[in-house]
Design a protein that fits this description.
- The complex is a heterodimer of chains A (about 250) and B (about 350).
- Chain A is α/β, with parallel strands linked by helices and about 250 residues long.
- Chain A has one domain: 3-Layer(aba) Sandwich (Rossmann fold), CATH 3.40.50.620.
- Chain A is about 20% helix and about 30% strand.
- A nine-stranded mixed beta sheet of chain A has the order 9-8-7-10-6-1-4-5-11, sandwiched between helices.
- In chain A, a hairpin with a 2-residue loop joins β7 and β8.
- In chain A, α2 runs antiparallel to α5 and α3 crosses α4.
- Chain A is globular and about 75 Å long.
- The termini of chain A are far apart.
- By secondary structure, chain B is an alpha/beta fold.
- Chain B has two domains: about 180 residues, Rossmann fold; about 120 residues, Rossmann fold (3-Layer(aba) Sandwich).
- Chain B contains eight helices and 18 strands.
- In chain B, strands 7-11-6-1-4-5-12 form a seven-stranded parallel beta sheet, sandwiched between helices. A five-stranded parallel beta sheet of chain B has the order 15-14-16-17-18.
- In chain B, a hairpin with a 6-residue loop joins β8 and β9.
- The longest helix of chain B has 16 residues.
- The radius of gyration of chain B is 22 Å and the shape is globular.
- The N and C termini of chain B lie far apart (about 65 Å).
- The mean pLDDT of chain B is about 95.
- The chains are: A alpha/beta (about 250), B alpha/beta (about 350).
- Chains A and B meet through α3, α4, β7, β9 and β12 of A and α3, α4, β7, β9 and β10 of B.
- β12 of chain A pairs antiparallel with β10 of chain B, so a sheet runs across the interface.
């Protein structure tokens, strides 16, 4: 066997940490256009995991993003950091997909490359659900290892260290396997300048739902069992509090 | 299949034969939902040699414990638990299934929902029973589960429904729901089920688990002193520990304080950390980003100390001190000490 085929699923997200006064509209809703679109932070850790496998054991890394053509920007970033191929899954039929439909579409795209290892970020900062990764794994019917912190490979087995909240677990997972990666895995390596120049105008391979064999009724709104009933903006009510003077007289306990 | 007589389920997470806190919290909510629907509360207990854990689940509000006891379930593994759970759902057909948004729950619930092709809402902060009108089809659904969660970095609160593909599934953040008072001697029915794992290949083998000695117990603390970016340095954080010590409380931090390296990650309070509701929260140099407030605004009493009188933290505070915490906190410590003398 000549190294491992790694697929990494990446997402372009609005930078929710930059939600400030300017990004809020007068009615309290968010002006998404005012937020920069960024490479989802933990997907960068996932890309690092894939690149480190390629570096240590050989093989190739394919980055897949699902979304609007604008997501090409993060695919170019992935290429600049060392990914070998970039794939954009884009289709109007995918609009309105919840995590179930998203994981279905992505799993269909991943299957096309018959990978040994699949990496996803633990969660995306726009939804924070952490559902898409394990759901892709279920659909691929492969080993699922979430909260990955460290990884070694021995033949057809991955030796993975993962955070289980109450401790740290070491497990042996038979390949193929899907991993969701946390920031503890380590930061994404810096770009290679040579590759930045080479790929600055690179176009990803474009796939639509039909090209990856998706059934229409499992994509987009039709394939999404959840619906949003109501959205409320978090508007902090001007609360009333008792002000205490920052002096010895103010701060007494009685 | 929609089963309006179906039970409301809670996944009774356990490790090494010990139930975690979250099933007790969820059972409190499940009782409320089930009584509105006029159905039973079921707890799903999976593991090896865990039958004795049924009793505390009954005493916390379960009517039925669905027990799957199998050596293959001794340690949590995604495929084994997923498979057993999916078969159980198909067999018993609950209408609602709730999981803790723990590492285990966030691994298991999405996998189960994927296999059943039903909806799942992550990290809910509230669950209610209500109606839903599909604006496109004009269909009205009564008594569906309203799954309420923060999204978009905590800047919006979304209510999600899953009106068609049941069971309605959700994970719920730890520390958000309140357990019921333990009802000693409360009885229920244990129903035993097979794990259906014969001939199922489990591709993962757990080699070793190193448990973290949990030195920080924010959830169990009645008093929390929480520091933010305004604390200014790791050294200054010591001052907060001093204050917590005289009060017998614990020290937490905002995400900013954790990111700046002022305190450890396990002390983080807020949307991506822990949710707390202590009797007293003393917030020092925390500006009060919505993500942070989401994790602490239900504290019974909040004292905020900040140099910026317009900081959002004052909007949730009961008492506010506008001033430098390096001046104010020593005064507080002095006042508390003198009171004790």
């Amino acid at each position: 066997m000549n190294g491992y085929t790694c697929v990494v699923c990446i997402k372009q997200v609005p930078d929710t940490k930059k939600v400030t006064g300017q990004a809020m509209k007068a009615d309290g809703t968010i002006n998404r256009a005012a937020l920069p679109a960024i490479f989802n932070p933990e997907d960068k850790n996932a890309l690092e995991a894939a690149l480190s496998v390629k570096e240590r054991y050989g093989g190739k890394v394919i980055a897949i993003a699902m979304g609007l053509p604008a997501a090409t920007a993060i695919l170019r970033e992935a290429l600049a950091c060392g990914a070998d191929e970039a794939v954009l899954v884009t289709d109007r039929k995918a609009a309105g997909s919840d995590t179930l439909a998203t994981s279905y579409i992505l799993s269909q795209a991943v299957k096309k490359f018959n990978p040994d290892l699949v990496f996803c970020g633990r969660q995306a900062i726009d939804g924070d659900t952490a559902q898409t990764g394990p759901q892709i794994g279920e659909k691929l019917d492969c080993a699922v290892v979430t909260y990955l912190e460290k990884l070694e490979i021995d033949g057809d087995t991955a030796i993975a260290t993962r955070d289980i909240g109450t401790g740290v677990e070491t497990c042996r997972a038979k390949l193929p396997a899907l991993f969701t990666v946390t920031e503890k895995f380590g930061e994404l390596r810096p770009y290679e300048m040579r590759r930045v120049m080479k790929y600055k105008n690179a176009e990803p391979t474009i796939l639509d739902c039909a090209a990856i064999g998706c059934e229409d009724d499992r994509c987009g709104f039709a394939g999404s069992p959840t619906s949003v009933n109501k959205i409320e903006s978090v508007v902090l009510a001007g609360g009333e509090f008792k002000e205490v003077a920052a002096t010895d007289e103010g701060i007494t306990i009685g | 299949m929609k089963n309006i007589q179906g039970e409301v389920w809670v996944f009774a997470e356990q490790e090494e034969g010990k139930l975690s806190d979250v099933p007790f919290e969820l059972l409190g909510k499940a009782r409320e939902l089930a009584s509105k629907l006029g159905v039973k509360v079921g707890a799903v207990l999976m593991g090896s040699g865990v039958e004795s854990l049924a009793k505390p689940l009954f005493e916390a509000g379960a009517d039925v414990v669905h027990l799957i006891d199998d050596p293959a379930l001794k340690v949590y593994r995604n495929k084994a638990y997923r498979h057993a759970m999916v078969e159980l759902v198909k067999e018993v057909n609950p209408q609602i299934a709730i999981f803790g948004a723990t590492h285990m729950g966030r691994d298991l619930a999405p996998s189960v929902a994927s296999a059943l092709r039903c909806g799942l809402t992550a990290d809910c902060t509230d669950l209610q029973i209500g109606d839903y009108e599909d604006k496109k089809t004009k269909e009205t659904f009564t008594n569906v589960l309203h799954q309420i969660r923060p999204a978009f970095g905590g800047n919006i609160i979304a209510t999600i429904v899953n009106a068609r593909n049941w069971p309605q599934m959700a994970t719920v953040r730890e520390g958000v729901m309140k357990p019921l008072p333990r009802e000693e001697g409360r009885k229920g029915e244990i129903v035993k089920h097979s794990a259906h794992l014969d001939g199922v290949e489990i591709p993962v083998e757990v080699v070793e688990i190193v448990r973290k000695a949990s030195t920080v117990n924010l959830k169990g603390s009645r008093i929390i002193v929480c520091g933010g970016a305004g604390v200014g340095s790791k050294e200054n954080f010591k001052l907060l520990h001093d204050l917590a010590n005289v009060l017998g409380g614990a020290v937490g931090g905002s995400r900013a304080a954790v990111d700046l390296g002022y305190c450890e990650h396990e002390r983080q309070i807020g949307q991506t950390g822990v949710t707390v509701r202590p009797a007293l929260m003393i917030s020092c140099g925390v500006s009060g980003a919505v993500q942070h407030l989401a994790g602490m605004q239900d504290s019974a009493k909040i004292i905020a100390i900040n140099t910026d009188k317009d900081a959002p933290i004052f909007k949730v505070a009961h008492y506010g001190i506008v001033g430098d915490l390096n001046v104010v906190v020593p005064k507080l410590i002095k006042a508390i000490k003198s009171k004790g003398e």
